[in-house]
Amino acid sequence: DAGVIQSPRHEVTEMGQEVTLRCKPISGHNSLFWYRQTMMRGLELLIYFNNNVPIDDSGMPEDRFSAKMPNASFSTLKIQPSEPRDSAVYFCASSLVTSGGGTQYFGPGTRLLVL
Amino acid sequence: DAKTTQPTSMDCAEGRAANLPCNHSTISGNEYVYWYRQIHSQGPQYIIHGLKNNETNEMASLIITEDRKSSTLILPHATLRDTAVYYCIVRRPSSGSARQLTFGSGTQLTVLP
Question: Rounded to whole angstroms, what are the CA distances from B11 to A13, B7, B27, B50, B63?
Fold first, then answer.
């Protein structure tokens, strides 16, 4: 299996521009998570989906952030407009959730720099 | 999910066993102990998890005390590539729905040549 795939791996943009991050979860997994990592705040959950449905988006910083999962094999995280404080590494993770739990597997991340 | 406490940093000689401790004194009976690691500039990597019994896989062993208030991750023969931040996470079962992982500060393990 290829694992979780994220694109782009690096993104440099200017303040005010729209940024779209993409994630392809592991085939057969039914849950998908978006995390953000910064030096100041560490790894923090932004939103997660179960069977393509958003379950908890309480970690999304503000209305500038939105996430979608149109099907089981694709998700996007969009920032519009982007700000310098959004600079971070964004990770996508997926898992197969059963009654007993589910191990999350992370992608390589997208390094975002907003100038 | 119960809170965990880990040392900030540890060193280990290459080829020796690395023993990473984790305290989780408020763990509940149905909460699992998970270990992940993050090598610099990479995504977190799953290592192992357990509930009550000790567990072993190709990467590591997990020793959970009988009272479940602490655990130790053991890398039997540490290599330079094992240098990473190791996270101990306690999490309730999913009950059929996804649950997030809450990452603390972890332990920076440095394997020395």
Answer: 39, 11, 27, 25, 20
Q: Going by DSSP bridges, is the β-strand pair B70-75/A31-38 parallel, antiparallel, or unpaired?
A: unpaired
Q: Rounded CA gap, A88 and A91, in Å?
A: 10
Closest chain A C-alpha to B94 CA, distance in angstroms? 4
User: Which pLDDT value is given to residue B103?
Assistant: 85
pLDDT tens, residue by residue, A8-36: 999 999 999 999 999 999 999 999 999 99
CA distance A69 to A105: 17
Provide the pLDDT confidence category of residue B101 given band limits of 50, 70 and 90. confident
Distance from CA of B19 to the nearest CA of A (A): 23
Identity of the residue in B34, B97, B101 whose CB atom sits nearest the CB atom of A97:
B97
Query: Which 8-state DSSP code applies to residue A2?
Result: -
Residue B96's closest CA among A20, A55, A76, A59? A55
The per-residue pLDDT for B20 is 98
CA end-to-end distance (rounded Å), chain B: 37
Q: Give the pair of three-digit tokens for residue B1.
A: 């999910």
Distance, in Å, from the CA atom of B106 to the CA atom of B22, rounded to the nearest integer, reads 9
- The closest of B44, B8, B18, B19 to B111, measured between CA atoms, is B18
* A4 phi/psi in degrees, rounded to 5: -75, 130
Residues in chain B closer than 8 A to A56 (CB atoms): 100
